[in-house]
Structures are given as structure tokens and as C-alpha cells.
Amino acid sequence: MQHEPMRLRSLLLSSMIPRLALLIAVLSITLVALSFHFIVKQSNDLQQQSVEGLEQDISFIVSDTTRQLADLAANDIIINSLVDIQQRDNYLPMFFRSLNLTQAKTVEFALFDFAGEKVIDKNWSATLPESLSSAWRQQTLGSSNTFSSVSKYGVVISVPVLLNGVSEGALVMYVDSLQSLLAPYPRLTNQLVTDSNGNVLFSSEPSLIAPNSSFLAFNQSGYSIKQTSWKNLQLYSVKPTITAYREVAWTGIVLLAMVVGFIFIILHMVSMTGTLAERTLSTLYDDIKNRLNSDNTTYLNDESQVEAKELADIRAAFDKLIWDLTEVSLSNEQFSNVLESMGDMLVVVDQNQEILISNKRFDMFCDDQYGEKNAILKMIVRKLSAKQSDELTHFSVNSGKERYIRWTKASLADVNGNIRGDIYVGSDVTEQRALESHVNVLTHAMDEATVSIIISDVKRVGQPIIYVNSAFEELTGYKRSEMIGHNCRSMQGDETSKQTVEQIRKAIATREPIETTLLNYRKDGSAFYNRLNLTPVKTNGEVTHYIGFQQDVTQQRQTEQYLQDAREKAEESARLKSSFLASMSHEIRTPIHGISGVLQLMANSELTEEQKHYLSLAKFSIQGLLHIVNDILDFSKIEAGQLQIEDNPFDILESLENLQSQYAIMCQEKGLELHFHFDLQGFHVVQGDDVRFRQILSNLLGNAVKFTDTGYIEVTTSIKQDADDSLTLLCSVKDTGIGIAQDKQSTIFDVFTQEDLSTTRKFGGTGLGLSISKQLCELMGGSIKLESVKGHGSTFSFTISLEPADETLLVPVHHASSLKREKGKKRKVLIVEDNDINQIIVKQHLSNHTTLSAKSGLEALEALNKMKVTFDVILMDCQMPEMDGFEATKRIRNGEAGERYLNVPIIALTANAMKGDKERCVEAGMDDYLSKPFDAEDLIDKVDHWASAERNSELV
After folding, report:
1. 5 cis-preceded (ω within 30 degrees of 0)
2. What b/e readout covers 98-128, taking b as 16+ CB neighbours within 10 angstroms?
């Protein structure tokens, strides 16, 4: 009786279940073992991380707090407090109350001077042992170094307060315990910090181990402990062992549940797979059996072979199908379709090199060549006679260019293995060769470039370099083999800007280009400034690479630094020169004031006509000398950058009319006509600098009067409103004077320049007026130009920028007539002046008042305190020995002269005229400002103005 084969489902179940059971058992044991191993390892790693994190926290807190204290010690407030002993109590308490550097609830701060004496503190109640106090004093005050200590006495951090690199004091922070510093931070495990004696300084779980207890008395059984050291402290991570075992138990339960579920799933899958396979194969067998005309011969003759019935049936059916298919040959049409579908050229030849078959691509190739198909084929056969493959060069008739074809030869054999001919397949690689040639040219060009080029792959981990050229090797000293596969971090050093490196990383992360300069280091350690240009390279819209161009700009940087140093030296030289000129102007103005004052006193005395004439000549000379000094001072202020352009409302029409009145007299004396033309467009009140405007116009008018003997002088002024509502003033001064030669006009606005020496000898002058006028025009947003013909006069035109202003904003000018003076009533005036001549002049000018003089600020304070009489006005010179006028005024305002002088009018008398002098007077508490040399009327007006108890309504 023939053996019936087993069903496929039964065969699968019987063969797979034992193997699956063994596999599941092995996997279960392995998983349990691995889980236990990894849980224990994870627990150890967690404790190690906890200890390392605790070490990092302590190190960070100490170093960061030290850094913040150092920043505070470098603050001007702290440094000045050790110098400015009198004023520090006004700002140090508020500054110290605002200090908050840590998260600890109780933090104590104190500032100590060089002697170790406490200057100020915040909550300071610390009582430190002598050893600790001596340690921080010696380290910080003695050696000018920072000091930090963590012990059972608390946390002490001190930093020096440096002045010129030497410790002048110390800023000290004290926290009573390490517990309060570390408590706010989250902890992975139970953490401890002990000193060398085992005293607990910090415990993240005070309920387990209390701070200030002894760790040596702690029972460590049942706990896993990790330990490390930090300076003189011991750091611990304490974790109960039962926690790890509990995790292992839960993991085992989960794994067991997974294994059981896995077994049920596998059994179900095997059963379903067997059923599905049985059904599928049976269906396939029925389909094949219906298609084939075959007998019912059975091929399963081996009864001992265990085989599924379905598989045996399929094999029998396929054996019959294969037998039938071997009798069927492919049709020519089907074979031709296969050949034509090929992308390459194909030709089959017999042993006599006769073509058996070829596709259209080969035929088209032959049509594009010189010669017949057979001749072309023979050439190909000859070239590949000893080779299986070769690349041949062919000339294209149509394109007139060479074509590169890679030919491959294969033998044609029949079913019996006999060689019947050869098969030749040709692939057109012309475009590939052209692309390779283009790439080679680009690669060679990049390699020969004089600029360093690198290419990195940003898609790979670490963004390694994949190409550097020869210029990179020459620039850095690194070989290609040393850089390929690495990045450029090896070229960075301690002096490389971390901020620049971060900018580069950010640009690469966002796939943006960047151009920057950073300090790099060559292989030999020498530094150079690298001008780096990084450009992203996109492939299919995605950035895959970065190409970098590098250039050594060290010499350029050195040149820039040299130029910077040279500029600073030049600025310092200009500042010193300007300071010298200003000082000289001050020293000159003081004796000029003496001469001017004496001349004014003489003018008030009885003089003969000849003496009056001599006096007028002297006064004219003084005015000329003062004009020169003012020009020199203005020039020095412009060079030093101290000339300040005011921005106040003024009546420009009134200024022009005053100038017209002033110069009309001078023109009348020389027999000249003076014409003023106005076109102000209704803007007679404008916002700007009235003084500098009048100075420019006065310089031009003065020159016109000086260099014009006959004819006229014409001044034309117009204002136009710009699109942004600002105003532009255009003013021209035309004369019929001597004119200026064409070759001299380009330098006429230079410093100390006139047309020629004969002009200087004949007309005088310093050559500063036009230069100052030009710079004033530029400072006021305008310009100045000249049109002149030698012998036919000159026209100077200038522009300045102004703004519209409201007439109500004009500050009324107070004249002497605005005061209701009490006739016959004398004022008591204190004159504080160190120059004897100036004292005499002021006293004579104020002869109608009662005056008293003092030669310094100290004498003035003594007089104010000792004398019973109360002064109505104080005239205060600014520059005096022992105590200057600024300090004396401050002390008077602070009450050192008594309450009756707190608001006494103080008028500054000074020969200074540099930028900030007037503001300094106001800041010191002075009420008014009078610059030497001054007119007697101006002095009397100001004294009467400030001493009068009764004012007109407009003064209220």
C-alpha cells in the first residue's frame, strides 16, 4: 500500500515547534541575563553620573561665584569706594543691598580695605577661625589672588579689588553652609559631601543622613555607594540596593509576560502559515493541472521520502511544464524586440566574422561613421582580438567630434556548449569622458589656485574635510593625508575667538554662507589671521558640502594695527597741541584783560584829545590781539573736537541787522557802500547756532572791508525750505576788492594761509579766519566756496542747515535797563581773584559798590564765615591756587559758608573758553558766566542783575 504524504500544515507544525521552543528558551534566558546586567550597569552609571554632577555643581558654583565677585570687584563703584572715602557712603550701601549672586537664602558680603578692615557689608555676621581669616587675607590682600574655601565653617570666597594691578582691598562672600548653596539643585540620587574628617557638609536627603553629622557612623549595609574627591572634600552617591533588585524583579515579570505572549503568537502564526500555504499551493496545482495536457503519471516513487503532498504534486506538474517549454523556441519578432529595447549597441557575428544580427543602435552608429558596416565591424573585431573589453575612439560624421565607445566581447555558444560566434556590445561613454575631463580641469585649477581651498562634507558625522588644495598645504603646513577625514578644529588654539567659532558653527548649522576672520595656528604652532569665506554647495536643493576659501591676512591685520596706533598717536599729538594752544590762549587772555580793563578805566578819566586818540589806538590794538587769540582758540577747539555747535532758537533778521549796523560804520570810514539783501521766506526765527553764524559772516565781512578800498560790499541772504521741512540758509558776501588769483584759490581755506606774503605784510592777519569759517560751515551741515577774479573782487558763498522755530521759544535778553535799580544803594560784592591787577580793575569798575577781595577759594570761605556783613554777589575766578572757583562754589552750595549763602548769586570770571567750561560752571553751582576780557558795562549789568531784589515782570 502506497504511503500517503503528510499535509503541509502538519509537517510545518511538527518540524518547527521543537525548534521554536528551544529558541524561545534560549532567548528568554539571554534576555533575563542581559536585563539584569544592564539594570545593574545603569544603576552604577546613574550613581556615577550623580557623583560627577555633584562635582560639577560644586565646581561651577565656586568658579562662577568667584567670577561674578571678580566682575563686581572690577566695577568702578567698588574701586572708587577705596579711593573716594568721603563719598562712598552715599552709594555703597545701596549697591551692596542689590547684590545677589547665589540661590542661597542667607549670603553675607563684605568689602575690606588693604589693611583688612571692613569698609561695608551686607548681613555680615560671620565669625571665622583665625586660620581661615588669615588664609584669605594672605591669598587675596597679600598675593592679589582669588581665594575659596569649603569647610565645616561654611563657604568663603574672596577676590582682590585691583588698582593698577595691585590689590587695594578685597570683596568677600560668606555662606554659613554648603547645604544652603546646593539645596536648590535637583539630584539623581542621594548625595553627600564630607570633609576629610567625615563631617557631612551637604546631604540631599537630610532625613537619611543629617547635615553636620558624621558619615563614618552611617550603616552602609544595604546601600550602593559611589565616591570621588574634589579638592579636600569627599563626594558620595548613596542608593539603596533594594531599589536595583526591585527593578530586576519588575523587568523579569514583564519579560516573562512577553515570552508567554510571544509563544502564543508564534504558534498561531505557524498554524496560519501552514494553512495558508496549503491552500495556496493546492490552488496553484489545480491551475497548472488544468492548463497542461498531461497524463496521471505519479513521480513519487520513493515511499521512504517524507514530502508534502502539495509540493509533490506541484513538482510533477512543473516537470511536465519544463519539458514542454524546452520544445518551444522564441519567435524572431520576440527576440528582435528584446534587442531593440537595449540601450547599448549590439552585434552578433559568426566564426567567419559575418553579421548574424544587429540592433538599430549599432546600425545608426555605423551610419555616423566613415566606411561600410563590415569594415567598421572588422576594425572593432581586430581591436578586441586579444581583449574582452576596450574603449575605442570613433569620429562622428554628423557632429564632427570624437565619440568614445566601450566595447565588450562575449562568446556565443549553443546548448551543447559549442562556440558559434561572438557577441559585441558597445556603450557610448562620450558624455562621461567629457564630464570627467571637465572635472579634471576644475580639480587641477583648484589645486593650482593660489588661494587656500577646502571642501567638507556636512552630511557626515563631524563634517570631515574631503579635499584640500596645494595652497592649503603651503598656508597651514598640514599635508592632505593629515586633513582628509578630519576637520579644522586642529587649527584652533587658546587665542582663537570662541565667539567667531560659534558664529561659524551657527552658520553651518543653518546652512548659511559666512565670511569672517579668525586666528588659526599652523602645524608648526605659528599663528596667523585667516580670512575665511564659507559657501554652501547644494545638490538637488539640499546643502551637502561647504567650500571654504582661506587667505592669510596677518600682514593686513598688522598694517591695520599699525595704522590704528599711528592714528591714536596723531590724535594724542593733536590733543596735546590743542591743549597747549588753549592753555596759551588762557594765559594770553589774562594779561589782555588787565590791559583792556586799565584802558577802560583810563577812558573814564579826563584825557586830552591826543590822549584819547592814543587810547583809541591802544583799544583797537587790544581788539585786534583779542581777535587773533579768539581765532587761535577756535582753531584749537575745532582740532580737539571740543567746538560745540549750539541748537537754540534765534532771530536771524535781528542778527543780520546788528551786523549791518556794526559794519556800516567801518564801511563809512573807508568810503565803501554796504548793501544787505534779505529773502528769508518768512523764517526770521530759526533753530541753530546764532553765535557761529555771526562769526562766519563777520569773518567774511571783515575780510571784505579789509581788502576793499573802493566800491561796495553786498551781502545777500536767503532761506529755502527742503522736502524734509529743514531749512538751508545761503549767504554770499560780494566785494569789489583786490580779488584772489586763480592758482591761490584752492589753498585759500587752508590753515595759516593767505594769498601771498605781500598780503600779510600789507593787511595783516593770521590766515585762520577762512579756515575756521570753512570748518564751522561743515560742522553746521553746510559748505563754503569762493568765486574771484584777481583785481575785480571776490564773492564768498556759504550754506548752513537750520530748522524752523517758534518765536515764543526765544529767550528774552536782559539788559541793564530791565532792572529797577535803587539809586544810591551800594551792593556788597566779594571778589575772589588771585591776580592783583584783575582785582584792581574789577574794584574800579565796581567803585559804586562795596567790594572785598580774596585770592583763593579758601580765603573766600573764611571771609564768608567770619564777616558779619552779608554779600549780595560773589565774583568767582575759576583758576586759583590752593582751592579753585569750582570747588569753592560747591562748598558754598553745600552750606560750608553758612545758610545765608546757600543761594547767593555767584558769577564766574574765567579766561577759559573751551568746550564744557560753561557747563562745568553751571554744574558747580554758579549762576552766570563772564569771559575775560569783559567790558565794564557787562560786569556792572550782571552784578546789578543778580544783586537786585526787585525785577521786571519779564524776569519773573
Report:
1. no
2. eeebbebeebbbbbbbbeeeebbbbeeebeb
Distance (Å, whole) CA 454 – CA 470: 10
Mark residue 198 as left, alpha or beta (left: phi above 0; alpha: psi -120 to 50; beta: remaining). left
* Three-state DSSP class for residue 351: coil
Cα radius of gyration rounded to whole Å, the chain: 52
**pLDDT winner (highest mean) among 64-73, 447-456, 606-615, 693-702:** 693-702
Q: What DSSP string runs through 656-675?
A: HHHHHHHHHHHHHHHT-EEE
3-state per-residue secondary structure call for 70-136 = HHHHCCHHHHHHHHCCCCHHHHHHHHHHCCCCCCCCCCEEEEEECCCCEEEEECCCCCCCHHHHHHH
CB 713 within 8 A of CB 701: yes
User: 3-class DSSP state for residue 328?
Assistant: coil
Question: Can you tell me the distance from the alpha carbon of 117 to that of 98, in angstroms, rounded to the nearest whole number?
Answer: 22
Neighbours of 787 (CB within 10 A): 13
Give the DSSP letter string of 794-842: EEEEEEEEEEE--GGGPPPPPPGGGB---TTPPPEEEEE-S-HHHHHHH
Task: Concatenate the DSSP letters of all residues of 133-187 into one string.
Answer: HHHHIIIIIIT---EEEEETTEEEEEEEEEETTEEEEEEEEEES-HHHHHTTS--
Kindly report the pTM of this predicted structure. Answer: 0.40
CB–CB of 473/450 below 8 Å?
no
Q: Within 10 Å of residue 379's Cβ, how many Cβ atoms?
A: 14
Closest by CA position to 596, among listed 560, 574, 626, 639: 626
Dist. CA 208–CA 203, nearest whole Å: 8
What's the CA angle centered on 699, arms 694 and 701, to 5 degrees? Answer: 90
Residue 710 exposure: Cα atoms within 13 Å on the Cβ side:
2
Query: pLDDT (tens digit, 9 = 90+) per residue, 766-800?
Result: 567 788 889 899 999 999 999 998 988 999 999 99
Say if residues 133 and 125 touch (Cβ distance below 8 Å).
no
The mean pLDDT value for 554-577 works out to 82
Task: Assess whether pLDDT exceeds 50 at residue 951.
Answer: no
Q: What separation in angstroms does the CA of 529 have from each of 468, 483, 518, 810?
A: 19, 19, 6, 58
Average the pLDDT over each of 213-217, 615-619, 623-627 and give the range with the smallest value: 623-627
